[in-house]
Design brief:
Blueprint lengths: L1 H19 L14 H5 L7 H15 L9 H16 L1 H10 L43 H8 L18 E3 L3 E7 L1 H6 L1 E7 L2 E3 L15 E2 L8 E5 L5 E5 L8 E2 L14 E3 L2 E7 L8 E4 L17 E3 L3 E7 L5 E4 L2 E9 H6 L1 E6 L4 E6 L8 E4 L17 E8 L6 H14 L37 H9 L2 H7 L6 H20 L1
Parallel strand pairs: 1-12, 2-13, 15-19
Antiparallel strand pairs: 3-10, 4-9, 5-8, 6-7, 11-13, 14-15, 16-17, 18-19
Helix pairs in contact: 3-4
Length: 499
């Protein structure tokens, strides 16, 4: 009985295994095509020739640019062929075993993938996933079509696309500088002190001692990635922690003593920055190539092209005591006396370069504005010598304290203008009391009402003929009395002479 159960267990196990790995023939539709034939190159073609051939086919058959019904399949075949030939292990397997290494579920996978070939992930895919699912070439279509138009991006030492040249770029440096309002208007130059990374002169940026060289990473075999197997036959790739994804390592003790293998060291440097006129507070100027040098010592290829980062200078403009600003326009508030605002006149207005005489119209009030064209800040990016405007706003200065004469004049002005609400203290317009006609008494000789009055008040009374009215109130002599007086004068003179 026990033997029978064991036999049944073995049969059951065989059935499970047989169910998982059935023997079958591969349909010609899914058979791996000869990658050399697809790309149109020979077996002795170099990596650059293979890349060039794929470059041409990808550009020709990409579904976004070629609407032919067969273009999608042709593009997929070209991509599969390039993915195979760009991997040294897969290319070696094809050259040695041919399509048998990838078809018929033979279980052979030079890349450590699951049975069914490295392209199993692409089978059954739909939509856009059909162009990258299961491929190990890490093809970035943005880089691909950027290369078609010459718009390849710069790399910071990461794994490069097969369609662009690797360029190592250093980090940018950001600093801040302060300038005055007038420097922002006229432009200036500033010395900026920085401590950027520069190429190590001892190792010329290689990060190695003289006579030393890098070696292949033993952990990842030079691939830069490590494959981890999980349950149900899945696998996961991660960046190799030993070489940081570079595929090569610097042997212990081979690092340059000056830069510690980084390929760059810090150095004090002074950069003269030209600040154009018209800059605003908070603007940022870029000085190309004055940033940190690229850390070529940590790159997989220290001899690759490299370029330093940029220097960014943040501008802070100090406020001015006289002027304000709105874009390219300069703002100025002109304080004028009350008399100038009422009567009009001329005032001197400061500008960014000198002073100008500005006419004030009669009746100017607080808040009235005048614009002087072309006397503002230079316009950045403007044509020629384009500049903003100087906008002048008037502010009428009101006196807080008045003398007796000033108050008298203002009260007279209020009377002339018919202002009934103004406060009176000098009683300029008060009328004199007339005598009561019912009383028979003869009034005494009237005193001069204009006696001891101030100069300004007396002048005003003369202008308004109040002196004449006072003079007209006294009794006037008749013509006969005048002739009689003239006749008496000679008699008095003669009498005095005979005596």
């Amino acid at each position: 009985m026990n033997d029978l159960n064991k036999t049944r267990g073995l049969v059951s196990s065989w059935r499970v295994i047989n169910h998982k790995r059935p023997f079958h023939t591969t349909s010609a539709r899914y058979a791996t095509k000869n990658p050399y034939t697809v790309l149109g190159v020979g077996k002795q073609a170099s990596a650059s020739e293979i890349k060039k051939a794929y470059y041409s086919l990808a550009k020709k058959y990409h579904p976004d640019t070629n609407k032919d019904a067969k273009a999608k399949d042709q593009f997929s075949d070209a991509q599969s062929a390039y993915e195979l030939l760009s991997d040294p292990k897969k290319k070696e397997a094809w050259d040695q075993y041919g399509a048998a290494a990838f078809d018929q579920g033979a279980g052979f996978d030079p890349s450590g993938g699951t049975a069914g070939g490295p392209f199993g992930g692409a089978a059954g895919s739909s939509g856009s996933q059909g162009f990258h699912g299961g491929f190990g070439a890490d093809i970035n279509f943005e880089d691909l079509f950027g290369a078609f138009t010459g718009g390849g991006r710069r790399s910071r030492g990461s794994r490069q696309s097969p369609f662009q040249e690797e360029i190592l770029v250093g980090q940018n440096i950001e600093v801040q500088t302060n300038i005055s309002f007038m420097d922002a208007a006229k432009g200036t130059s500033k010395d900026i002190h920085i401590h950027p990374f520069v190429q190590c002169k001892t190792c010329s940026g290689k990060g190695l001692k003289k006579g030393q060289s890098r070696s292949t990473c033993q952990k990842c075999g030079g691939t830069g990635t490590r494959v981890h197997f999980v349950q149900a036959g899945f696998q996961m790739a991660s960046t190799c922690e030993t070489c940081g994804g570079q595929g090569v390592v610097v042997p212990r003790g081979a690092e340059c003593n000056t830069c510690s293998g980084n390929g760059s060291v810090r150095e004090r440097k002074t950069v003269n920055v030209d600040i154009p006129g018209g800059v605003e507070d908070g603007m940022r100027l870029r000085v190309s190539g004055e940033g940190d040098a690229a850390p070529t010592g940590t790159a997989a290829n220290p001899s690759a092209r490299s370029t330093p980062g940029d220097l960014y200078v943040f501008i802070r403009v100090a406020p001015d005591s006289k002027f304000g600003r709105s874009g390219a326009d300069v703002l100025y508030t002109a304080s004028i006396p009350l008399t100038t605002a009422v009567l009009g006149g001329d005032v001197m207005i400061p500008t960014l370069s000198s002073e100008v005489r500005l006419k004030v119209k009669t009746g100017t009030g607080t808040g009235d504005k005048v614009t002087l064209g072309g006397m503002g800040m230079p316009k950045l990016g403007g044509r020629g010598n384009a500049a903003g405007d100087l906008r002048v706003e008037f502010k009428v200065t009101m006196p807080k304290y008045l003398s007796a004469n000033q108050r008298t004049i203002l009260e007279m002005l209020a009377d002339e203008l018919g202002d009934k609400t103004a406060k009176r203290m000098m009683n300029v317009g008060a009328t004199r009391t007339s005598p009561d006609p019912s009383k028979p008494t003869i009034p005494p000789a009237p005193a001069d009402p204009h006696k001891n009055e101030g100069f300004l008040k007396s002048a005003w009374h003369k202008l308004t003929h109040q002196h004449d009215e006072s003079a007209g109130g006294s009794p006037q002599s008749s013509p006969e009395d005048e002739r009689k007086g003239e006749a008496e004068e000679p008699k008095k003179a003669a009498g005095s002479g005979s005596g």
